[in-house]
Structures are given as C-alpha cells and as structure tokens.
Amino acid sequence: MSRSLVLLLGRHSLQSLVPATLISQVESLLDNHRIQNAVDLADQERRRQLYGGVRVDEAEVEQLHYIYQRIGFQCFQETLFEDAGKHLFDGELDARILVSYFPSLRGTLGRAKDYVNMFTGVAEHVPSEPSVEEIIAANLVRNYSPHLAPNTREAPSTAELRKILHIAAEDMLEAFLRKCRTRRVLDNQSDESTLTLSDEYAVVDTVLVKLFAKSEKTKDLYALLHETHHVVLSEVESVLVETGQYNALSVLYQHSGEDEKLLEVWAKIIDQEWTDEDIPDPIGNMVTHITKLIQSKPPAHSEITRKWALWLMQEKRDPESGLKLLVSSRSPSTTRASGKRRHPQNNKSVSNLEELDAGKQDQELLVRIREVNPGIVVQYLEYLILQLGIKTREIHVEYAMSCINGVLDYLKNTEVERLWRAKAASYFSSSSANTSPSSLSSTTPLPFVSYFASTTPDSPSKRARIKTLLFLQTSGLYDASIIKEKILGVLATTSEGAGSSSGSKAKHKPLILGLELAILESKLGNHHAVLECLVRDVGDSASAEAYCTSGIDREVIPARIRRTITESTEGLNDWKDTVIAVGKTGTEQAGLTNDGLLKMLLEVLMVVSDADKEASSGSRSELQPHQIQVSRLLDSQGVHLDVCDVIQTIPSSWPLNLLSSFVARSCRRTLHTTHEGQIVKMLTLAENWDVKERTWAVLREEGFVVEESVEGEGGNDSESKGRDAVDVVLNEKSALLSSSDPPSVDVLPDSEGV
Question: CA 369 to CA 373: how far, in whole Å?
C-alpha cells in the first residue's frame, strides 16, 4: 500500500501525490500491450516475497495472484497460449475457469455449479468469447482481415493456422492441468480441503483423461488411473471408446464398481468386436473378477455370475471356464447359509422346501446349459452328483443315460470298438490260459475292470467308460432296466449280439459291454444273470467270486478295486472314495446269503463248462477252462459249500483229482469239528466235577440237607401220618463219597473209534 506525505487541500477537493501501485503499473503496461514488462514486474515482486526475507501478508499474496491472472488472460486473449498457461498457473487460477473455454473437453462438468471464486478485476478482463475456437477466430480477424480472401474463416492458410493454434491451446491446457495435479500431491491436501475442492479435482482429472486419450498418451493415462483420482466416469466413457482405450475403460469400471459394464468390455474383446493389446487375456480377467465377486458377496452376485458363466460356456468361447464359474456360483441352501437354530418340528418341512428349491434351481440351470452348449451338460451333472452329493432321481437318471450314450457314441468309432473288442477277447483268452492245470495253486486272476484300466492307453473314451462303470456301480437312483434295454438294443444290431443270442454250438465270444450288463443285472437283483454274465460273457470269475462273498452290499466292482482304478487313472481324482447314492439292492430283497450265491455260482460254472465241452473240438479227456475254475472255486470257498451237494452236482465223468483237494479238506474239517466237540464236552464235565467237589463241604456245613419223612404202618389220615413219621436225614453227597471215580475218556480216539 502506498503512502503520501504531501496533501493539497482545496475548496472542493483533497489531492495527494502518491507513487503508482504495482497493480496500476501492471494494468497500465497491459493496456499498452507491454506484456513482457508486466511479467518482469510480477516476477520481481514474486522474488521479493520468496527471497526478500520480509514478512508477506495474505493481501500481498492475493495481489500477486491477481497480477498473474491478469497477465495470463491477456496472453490467452492474444493466443499466446503457452505463456498464458504458465501465468495462469502462477496466479493459481481455478482450473474450471480455464476449462470452460474448451466446451468439447468440458462436457457437462461445472454446469451444476456455475459460480467460482474470482477476482472482480480479472473477471472484467477475461475474454468475452465462449470458447477458445472463437478466441482464435477473433484473433485471426484482428490480425489478418481483410488481407486474406475470401475471409479469415475460409482461407486455406488460416485454416491450417487455426488448427495449429487449437493444438497449442490444448497443449497449454494439458500442461496446466498436469501442474495442478502435481501441486495437489505436493501440497498434501487434508481431507477437509479435498472435500471443498472435489469439484475442481474432478474437472482436472476428467479433462486430463480426455486429453491423454485423444493424444494417445497411454502411459500417462494408465499412470493417472492407477493413482488416486476423481475422474467422472460418465464423462470419459464415450471418449475412451472412440479412441480405443478399452483397457483404461475397464480400469475405470473396476475402480467404480461397474461390474456389468466391465464384463461387457471384456466380452466384446473376447468376441473380437474390440481389440486392445493391453488386454492379452480377457477370459482370464473375466474369470478372476467374477471369482472375486463370488468370494466377496456370493448372494448379491450370483445372478451376474450365472449370466456370464453361461455366456462363456458357448462352444466358441471357453466352456471349461464357464462351467467352473457356474458351479462356484451355485448358492448354498438356506440352512447352511443362515446357521440359525430352528424348532425341531419345523426342521423336516424346512429341509424339504430347501431340497425342492435346490432341485428346481438345478433343473433350470440344466435347461439353460442345454440351450447354450449341450456338450457341457454331462460335466455339470457330474459336479452336482460328485461334489454336491445331489440325490435327485431325475438327475441321476439323466447322468446315467448321458454316460451310456457317450460310451455307445465312442463305440461307433471303428478304432475304439476294435480296441475294446480286443481287450475283451484278450482278457477272456488270458483267463482261460490262467486256468490251466499248472495254475491251480496260482493267485486269484485280475478282475476285468482292473485289466482294462491298466492296459488301455489313456484317452477320453477310456475315461468315459470307467466313469460309466463307477457310476453304475455306486449309484442306486437310476433305472437300470432302461439302460439295460438300451445296451441290449445296440448290441443286438452287432454281430456279437446276434452270436450271443443264437443257439449255435460255436465257441462263445465275450461281450464288449458285458461288465456293464453285469452291474445292471446286480442292480435289478438278478444274481443268476450277474454270475452268468461275468463267467460266460466276460470270463471274470474273480469278480463273480467276489460278488458272492461281498456280504450284504453285493458289488461287481468292490470299493477297493474302485479306489485303485481312480488312483491310477488320470482325470478321475473326483471319483476317489466316492459313495454317490446306494439304493436298496436286489440281494437285500431276496435275502440270499454267501452260501446260496456260491452254490449258484457253482451251478453256473457247471452249465458253462458243459456248453464249452460241447463246443470244444479237443479230446474229451482234456480239462476245460471252467472245470479248472470250478476246482479253484471249491478250493477257495469250500468252507461255504456242502460236500454232499457238490458231489451230487459234479458229473461223474470229471477227473477225481479236481475234487480230491476239496473232499480231503471237507473231511478234515468235519473230523476236526467232531474232535473239537468231544474235547469241549469232556472239559465241561471235568469242570462240573471240580465245582461239585469244592462246594460240597461248604454246603454241608451250612446245613444244606434234605429231610424226608418215612411213613409208618397203618393210617391214612394226616394225624396218623404226622404221628408215625420218622425224621430221616439224607446226605445227598453220600453217593459221591461212596461212588468210584468216573471212567477215563480218550479225547483222541484211534482209527477204530475206541
């Protein structure tokens, strides 16, 4: 502030001689278009405030800001954009004022609040034109009109100059906004000031994003988006799409929680509607993001997850990833989610309602999956059964039919059919070779399913058949009769089906799907058909014997074999130790025991042996394979068979050496049982004598005697009986004392039985 020491007092006035102020000097210079001199004065004052060592009050700071803003707008008016941006920044101009001259970049920003703080003197000198384009046009008219024809707007030279000046203006604006962001970080604005200046920050960041996108400054754009920012998403969406900055758009969507729009961006890139090198794996990004949504708020995002999972399951995209998302989005039951206690009387009804809802949900998803990609339905059914333990009969029936259809489809492939037929024939012949007389004492032969799993090369067809066998064995909720009819219908059209059903005496050939039929017969309770199928059509006597001795749960493929197969076969880890749903078997309904089934197996072996003997062209004295199997069965399970029944069943023409071991063991067991009974009987008698001997004296001392009256002569009335009776004390142990020792018993009699 200026001071004066000389005052001139007049009649009607008061005058003083004072030096000119800094503001008046700058304004005078600007009026004369001496901009550089005004800048020098402002810089001199600035240096004085910074380095002069004097105390600077707020008024002096605002005065300097006013001067720089006046200089900046003067340069802006004269299209000196680079200098204008520098001076306006030094004057700490509100960025919204400068952005207002760029309507294409401003958009709808700042229209809700049209008033900002501004110096009155600066407001009087700001350009009156509404946009920077108008300022450039006015400047061209002022400098070049009427020297350019036809006019400054249509002349080619001014059009190029106008374009250059517009680029310079945008470069100035970009530099100005960059400095504003840098000053914001360096000043470390407090939370309160951040709330106050949030509108200005939003304008700065949003316009910068537009400028970076249009000028293809991708690195600067990513750097801004990965820092703390206040970008208004609705303002930059269209600009980022027009410029192809899809990765930047996805970053903004992810930052603002626009999950649906984010997934749509990745979907268009997956379908190649859009391309962006900065998004190399859109499917992976989509799967990762949806997985995070499921983990954060599963119920809230279940619908969006299912929508995009089904979208991914289309064949041209990534069905496997879509299936993983779909199974992870399946909402748990209300009981598991809530964890609240319920009244006992309501538990059953609530559980039934939850099961109905879950079943309805599964059916709806299955319908939608079939519409999108029918080939993935089997995998989803497998997830429902193995992972969730769904026990809905409809789902089990559908999965069983899908498995069988898959196996039958593979059989249509000539190579697969030839391989499976060769495996069946090889096992059948090897089982016959293993029943030679020299192998009677060998170990139990390998079951067919183990042979198939260990010798067949890994392939989708192999895994499909093993899965089918495992499911047919472990599930009891499908209709075995329907699947059996389907298999028999297919086999009937082949040469092997016709040969197996004919009455010719040719040598029997193994069925290619004989093991599947045996499992189905076991589910139907047809035990005789099971054994006949295993022995006659598969040649798997080991599985037939295990089926007869497995107890209540009759299984063609025991749990131990299933576990071994799943551990050794790639891609079957989910089937390890899996008990899907076991229904009531035919064995329980019929009430057959191990002894009854073993006797049935013996009869089947006898029938098959007779058939093979008729079909065989060899000598009649040659042992047939099933004769050897009968001998092995008698040796391993003879304890469960009656020797008399066996002797009556086996033809008299069979060699005696096949039965010698069984008969000898049976006689030895019978003799052992007899001798064991005699030993137990004698030991019991000896124990009884010892107890009687030790307790007699004690009982005698305690007065344990028997008193009986001896009737006298005459008189039948009660008085005469009581009067004539004589009390006699009888010692019940006297016989023990007078009797001789009991005869000795030979517990090991000789051959004559003495």
Answer: 6
Q: What are residue 16's DSSP bridge partners? A: 7
Pick the closest to residue 508 from 609, 620, 649, 631 (CA basis).
Answer: 609
Question: Considering the chain, what percentage of its residues have pLDDT values greater than 90?
Answer: 23
Please say whether the beta carbons of 509 and 496 come within 8 A. Answer: yes
Q: How far apart are CA 420 and CA 511, in angstroms?
A: 10
**Cα 102 to the center of its chain, rounded Å:** 52
Give residue for tokens 């009776």.
725
CA distance 78 to 545: 105
**DSSP per residue, 62-104:** HHHHHHHHHHHHHHHHTT-HHHHHHHHHHTT--HHHHHTT-HH
For the record, the structure tokens of 40 come out as 């020098």
CA–CA distance from 17 to each of 5, 20, 357, 360 (Å)?
Answer: 8, 10, 95, 97
Cα gap 439→402, rounded to integer Å: 42
Residue type, 86: K
Task: Specify the DSSP element, H or E, that contains 430.
Answer: helix 414-433
Helix (H) or strand (E) holding 432: helix 414-433
Q: Which residues pair with 669 in a beta bridge?
A: none
CA-to-CA separations, 259 to 254, 504, 602, in angstroms, rounded: 7, 71, 69
Query: 717: burial class by Cβ within 10 Å (0-12, 13-18, 19+)?
Result: exposed
CA dihedral 377, 383, 386, 392 (to 10 degrees): -60
Interhelix angle 541-548/514-523, nearest 10 degrees? 10
Given this model, what pLDDT does residue 446 score? Answer: 85
Residue type at 263? L
Q: Quick one: pLDDT at residue 90? A: 92
Q: Confirm if 213 and 245 have CB atoms less than 8 A apart.
A: yes
Which of the four pLDDT bands, split at 50, 70 and 90, describes residue 507? Answer: low
pLDDT digits (tens, 9 = 90+) for 283-305: 999 999 988 888 876 666 778 88
Report residue 44: phi and psi, to 5°: -65, -45
C-alpha span between 206 and 167 (Å, rounded): 19
> What is the rounded distance in angstroms from the CA atom of residue 208 to the CA atom of residue 175?
9
3-state SS record for 355-423: HHHHHHHHHHHHHHHHHHCHHHHHHHHHHHHHCCCCCCHHHHHHHHHHHHHHHHHHHCCHHHHHHHHHH
Tens-digit pLDDT profile for residues 447-503: 899 999 999 999 999 999 999 999 998 888 888 999 999 888 887 776 555 444 444
Cα–Cα distances (Å) from 413 to 453, 545, 564, in that order, read: 19, 34, 28
Query: In the prediction, which pLDDT does 304 show?
Result: 85
Q: Look at residue 607 and give its three-state secondary structure.
A: helix
Calculate the CA 300 to chain-centre distance. Answer: 19
Q: Per the structure block, which two tokens stand in for 183?
A: 């000053």
CB-CB contact of 477 with 583 (8 Å): yes
Contacts with 409 (C-beta within 8 Å, 6 or more apart), sequence order:
none
Nearest to 221 by CA among 198, 195, 250, 200: 250
The DSSP call for residue 475 is: B
The secondary structure element, H or E, covering residue 286 is helix 282-296
**How many whole angstroms separate alpha carbon 234 and alpha carbon 479?**
58
Helices assigned H by DSSP within 100-197:
103-106, 120-125, 132-144, 156-187, 191-196
- Give yes or no for a contact between 630 and 544, defined as CB atoms under 8 angstroms apart: no
Q: Using alpha carbons, list the distances in angstroms from residue 462 to 320, 411, 458, 562.
A: 20, 11, 6, 15
Gap between the Cα atoms of 279 and 263, Å rounded: 13
What 8-state DSSP symbol labels residue 616? -
Residue 108 to residue 104: CA distance in whole angstroms:
10
Closest CA to 522 of 498, 539, 492, 543: 543
This prediction has a pTM of 0.67
| Spacing of C-alpha 754 from chain mean position | 77
- Which tops the pLDDT comparison, 89 or 112? 89
φ, ψ dihedrals at 14, nearest 5°: -135, 120
